């Protein structure tokens, strides 16, 4: 799709297109597509292979990357999650893959020391299992004041570092929509859902 939107680019061999590159979204060509790569195998063996496969896109300027401590946005932003080893991303000389930081490390005063490492120069998302971080809501989707406060603090901590917030393992029906509404209200950036049809209706009501 990026090739169709940027006809001057040959992903195999050719000259780069002059001028700003267009993203895959017709309605907003400047919006970057987030490619979330969930590494399930050994990170040390897998991540270098992924980076090698992505290198043609990087050479053509299609990937968001870091250049002299500046983030250069491309039509595609690659975020690695799952078993991804942070050190591989952090130590990369050419950084075009970003980390999915642990959201539950971002907000408390007694944060683990590694929390200071995560920022917008090496990470894109800050994510955590909703059930792990907030625990289960009631059957109807009601959250306690303590749970809502924890969400607010996690969102604040991640946003302070320039990271987008993503909760996965969110409840499904019947509590799902009420939880989505609460997360949306508190500024969560990404709703991780399984029921895409119901999520589409929900998001349509928010715009």
Largest sheet, if any?
6 strands, parallel
Q: What is the typical, i.e. mean, pLDDT?
A: 84
Please provide the count of β strands. 8
User: What would the principal axes of the Cα set say about the shape?
Assistant: globular
Order of helices and strands: HEHEEEHEEHHEHEH
Strand order of the largest sheet: 1-4-5-6-7-8
Q: What percentage of amino acids are in beta strands?
A: 15-25%
Distance between the termini: 26 Å
Rg estimate, integer Å: 18 Å
Structural class: alpha/beta
- So how many helices? 7
Q: Low-confidence parts lasting 5 or more residues at pLDDT below 50? A: 11-16
Helix content: 25-40%
Describe the structure.
The protein is built from seven helices and eight strands, in the order H-E-H-E-E-E-H-E-E-H-H-E-H-E-H. It has helices at residues 2-5, 43-59, 86-90, 130-133, 145-160, 176-185, 196-206, and strands spanning 33-39, 65-67, 70-72, 76-82, 97-102, 123-129, 164-168, 190-191. Helices cover 32% and strands 19% of the residues. 27% of the residues are buried. The longest helix has 17 residues, at 43-59. The model is unreliable at 11-16 (pLDDT under 50).
């Amino acid at each position: 799709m990026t090739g169709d939107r940027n006809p001057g680019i040959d992903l195999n061999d050719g000259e780069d297109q002059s001028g700003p590159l267009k993203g895959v979204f017709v309605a907003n060509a400047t919006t970057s597509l987030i490619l979330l790569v969930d590494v399930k195998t050994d990170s040390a063996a897998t991540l270098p292979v992924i980076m090698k496969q992505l290198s043609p896109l990087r050479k053509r300027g299609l990937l968001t990357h870091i250049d002299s401590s500046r983030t250069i946005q491309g039509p595609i932003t690659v975020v690695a999650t799952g078993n991804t080893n942070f050190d591989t991303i952090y130590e990369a000389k050419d950084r075009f893959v970003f980390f999915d930081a642990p959201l539950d490390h971002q907000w408390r005063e007694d944060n683990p020391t590694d929390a200071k490492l995560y920022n917008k120069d090496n990470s894109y998302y800050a994510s955590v299992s909703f059930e792990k971080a907030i625990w289960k809501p009631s059957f109807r989707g009601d959250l306690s004041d303590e749970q809502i406060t924890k969400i607010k603090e996690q969102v604040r901590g991640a946003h302070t570092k320039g990271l987008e917030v993503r909760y996965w393992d969110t409840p499904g029906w019947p509590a799902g929509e009420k939880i989505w509404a609460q997360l949306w209200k508190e500024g969560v950036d990404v709703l991780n859902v399984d029921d895409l049809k119901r999520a589409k209706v929900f998001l349509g009501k928010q715009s």
